[in-house]
UniProtKB/TrEMBL annotation:
Highest classification ranks of the organism: Bacteria, Bacillati, Actinomycetota, Actinomycetes, Kitasatosporales
A Pfam family annotated for this UniProt entry: MGH1-like_GH
InterPro entries: 6-hairpin_glycosidase_sf (IPR008928), 6hp_glycosidase-like_sf (IPR012341), Glyco_hydro_65_C (IPR005194), MGH1-like_GH (IPR054491), TAT_signal (IPR006311)
Protein name (record): Uncharacterized protein
Domain annotation Mannosylglycerate hydrolase MGH1-like glycoside hydrolase: ranges: 102-431
Length: 518
C-alpha cells in the first residue's frame, strides 16, 4: 500500500474551478455574458434533421451544442503557457476551453470534450487541446501534466486512443503512447494500493467535497477541495478505477500499433487484473450494482459506501468492466430524478431536495450523457431516449448548455458546498459535447475502429428518419440516415447499394449511408 500522497499546492487552474464564481446564478440565467470569439474550424459542421416533429427540440439542441463547441469555446491559446510539449500547431492556433466560466482546459475537460465529440468534428483543435494538458519531463519524454488532481489524468489515454482511431494520425499515436505509458507508470508508483489491487484517489470529476458523505467530509473544515479533507487521497473509487481499466486497454492497443507487442501484453494483463479487483471489491451482489468507493484509511477503513455514483456506473459499462449480466442489473436499478440521472444518489445528510449538494443529487449533463451512452450500449433504447430528451429539455429552458441543474425543477443551480450556494457556469463545453456524444455515438452508433467506422444505431420510436449530412470522417464526407426504430439493423446501403454497417478508413469522397432499424 502506498503512503499518503504529498499534497501539491493548488494550481491556478484548480483555484479557478474551486472558487464560488460570483454573478452567474440561476436567477440571472437569461442574461448570458459575452463569449470569447474565435473562428469555427474550416469546413461546414454537419447538419441534422429529425422526423416525427422532434427537430425543434432534439435538432435544436444539437445545433446549439455545435455552436457551443465550434464557436463559443474554441478559443486562441497562449503558446508560452500551453505549448509545453512543442506539439500544438498554428493553424489552427486554437484549443477548447472548459466553458464560459472557465477559460482553460483542465485535463479531464480536455479529454472528455475530445472523446465526446471534438476529435470527430474538429480534429486539429482537439489535437491541440489534448497536448495543451501535457508537458515534457526533464528527460524530454511526454507525460500528462502532473497537477493536484492525479485521479483525473488517465481519462486522457482513452481520449487519445479515440483521437487516433478517428483520424489515423500516426505521429500523434507515437507521442500519445509515450505520454500514456509514462503517466500510467507514474500513477502506479504513486497511487496504487497493492492490498486491494486498485488505484487510490477521489472519484472522476469529484474535486469538490460535496460529492462525498461524512467522513471523509469534515464539517469543521471549510475548504471545498476534496484533498483538504482527511484520508481522501486513500479512497478507492469506482469511476476512477473503471477509467484506469480503459486506460490500460488503450495503452495496450497503442503499444501494439507502434510495434511494442510484449508491452501490449503486459498492459492488457494489468487491465485484466484491475477489472477483477473492481468486481471483487466494489460490486454489491445483494444490490446488483457497484458501490461508489472504499474508505482506504481512517475510522471506516475498508468500508464500501453504497451510493449510486452515476459516472462510475456509466464507465463500468463503457470501459468494459461490467459483464453483460451486470450491465442488465445496473440499467434496471438506476435511480432517476425528474430531470435526469444525478451525480450521486441519495442525498448526504447535510443536503436535501431544497438544498442539493454541488456534486450530490444534482444534474450534470455530462454525467447524464455518459449514462445515456451506456444505456444505448446496454440495449436500453428507452433509457437512452429519456436521457437525450432530459438534456434537450434542460437546454430548451433558455437555449444554452449550463454546467449544473436542479434535478427536481430543471432550474440552473450550482448546488451547495461547505455551507454556501455555488454558481452554475454558462456555456459549459462538456454539457454540450455530452449531447453531441449521445447523438453521434448513441443514436447513430458511431464506433471508430482500426479498420474504419461502424454503425450500431439506437433509434427511439417516432424520432425518425434522422439525417446527419456533411459529417467528415478522415477523407470522406458522409450523409447518414437512420429510419425505423429500435436497435436491430434490418438493412444498410452505401450509395444505394447493400453494404455492411461500416465504412473503411480509406474511403474518400462524398457518400450516403442509409440504415433501416426494426
Amino acid at each position: 500500500m502506498t503512503s499518503p500522497a504529498n499534497r501539491r499546492p493548488l494550481s491556478r487552474r484548480t483555484l479557478l474551478r474551486g472558487s464560488a464564481v460570483a454573478g452567474l446564478t440561476a436567477a440571472g440565467a437569461g442574461a448570458m455574458p459575452a463569449s470569447a470569439s474565435a473562428a469555427a474550424p474550416s469546413g461546414a459542421p454537419p447538419v441534422i434533421e429529425f422526423g416525427g416533429g422532434r427537430d425543434a427540440l432534439l435538432g435544436g439542441a444539437y445545433r446549439s451544442a455545435l455552436r457551443n463547441l465550434l464557436e463559443i469555446n474554441t478559443v486562441p491559446y497562449d503558446p508560452a503557457e500551453y505549448n509545453q510539449t512543442g506539439l500544438l500547431t498554428d493553424p489552427p492556433g486554437t484549443f477548447i476551453r472548459a466553458g464560459g466560466g472557465y477559460e482553460q482546459p483542465w485535463t479531464r475537460d480536455a479529454s472528455v470534450n475530445s472523446w465526446n465529440a471534438a476529435s470527430l468534428l474538429s480534429p486539429a483543435v482537439a489535437r491541440n487541446t489534448l497536448w495543451s494538458v501535457c508537458r515534457r519531463q526533464d528527460d524530454g519524454t511526454l507525460i500528462v501534466q502532473q497537477d493536484n488532481q492525479w485521479w483525473d489524468q488517465v481519462i486522457w489515454a482513452i481520449a487519445a486512443r479515440e483521437h487516433y482511431l478517428l483520424t489515423g494520425d500516426r505521429p500523434f499515436l507515437a507521442d500519445a503512447y509515450e505520454a500514456t505509458a509514462n503517466t500510467l507508470r507514474h500513477n502506479r508508483d504513486e497511487h496504487f494500493n497493492a492490498e486491494y489491487g486498485l488505484f487510490e484517489g477521489p472519484a472522476f470529476m469529484q474535486d469538490g467535497i460535496a460529492g462525498y458523505p461524512s467522513p471523509p467530509y469534515d464539517p469543521a473544515n471549510d475548504s471545498s477541495f476534496v484533498l483538504d479533507h482527511p484520508h481522501t487521497d486513500r479512497m478507492l473509487s469506482l469511476s476512477t478505477n473503471c477509467l484506469y481499466h480503459a486506460a490500460y486497454l488503450a495503452c495496450a492497443d497503442m503499444a501494439a500499433l507502434v510495434g511494442e507487442r510484449d508491452a501490449a501484453r503486459r498492459w492488457r494483463a494489468s487491465a485484466g487484473r484491475l477489472r477483477t479487483a473492481v468486481n471483487r471489491h466494489l460490486w454489491r451482489p445483494e444490490a446488483g450494482t457497484y458501490g461508489s468507493f472504499i474508505h482506504g484509511a481512517g475510522p471506516k477503513a475498508g468500508r464500501l459506501e453504497p451510493h449510486q455514483e452515476t459516472n462510475g456506473l456509466a464507465f463500468a459499462v463503457l470501459c468494459g468492466v461490467a459483464s453483460p449480466r451486470q450491465v442488465r442489473t445496473l440499467l434496471d436499478g438506476i435511480h432517476q430524478e425528474p430531470y435526469g440521472v444525478v451525480n450521486v444518489w441519495p442525498h448526504f445528510d447535510r443536503f436535501d431536495d431544497a438544498h442539493p449538494g454541488r456534486h450530490n443529487v444534482i444534474v450534470w449533463p455530462m454525467t447524464t450523457a455518459m449514462w445515456g451512452h451506456a444505456a444505448a450500449r446496454g440495449g436500453r433504447a428507452d433509457l437512452f431516449a429519456r436521457t437525450v430528451t432530459d438534456i434537450a429539455e434542460l437546454w430548451h429552458g433558455d437555449g444554452h448548455f449550463w454546467e449544473i441543474y436542479h434535478a427536481r425543477t430543471g432550474a440552473v443551480d450550482g448546488g451547495r458546498q461547505v455551507g454556501r450556494q455555488w454558481d452554475s457556469q454558462p456555456d459549459q463545453t462538456w454539457s454540450a459535447t455530452g449531447y453531441l456524444r449521445l447523438i453521434h455515438q448513441g443514436l447513430f452508433g458511431l464506433r471508430a475502429g482500426h479498420g474504419g467506422l461502424s454503425f450500431a444505431p439506437s433509434l427511439p420510436p417516432g424520432w425518425g428518419p434522422v439525417t446527419l449530412s456533411g459529417l467528415a470522417y478522415r477523407g470522406a464526407t458522409l450523409d447518414l440516415t437512420v429510419e425505423g426504430a429500435g436497435q436491430r439493423i434490418v438493412s444498410c446501403t452505401l450509395d444505394g447499394r447493400p453494404a455492411p454497417a461500416r465504412i473503411p478508413a480509406a474511403l474518400d469522397g462524398h457518400h450516403a449511408v442509409r440504415i433501416e432499424m426494426g
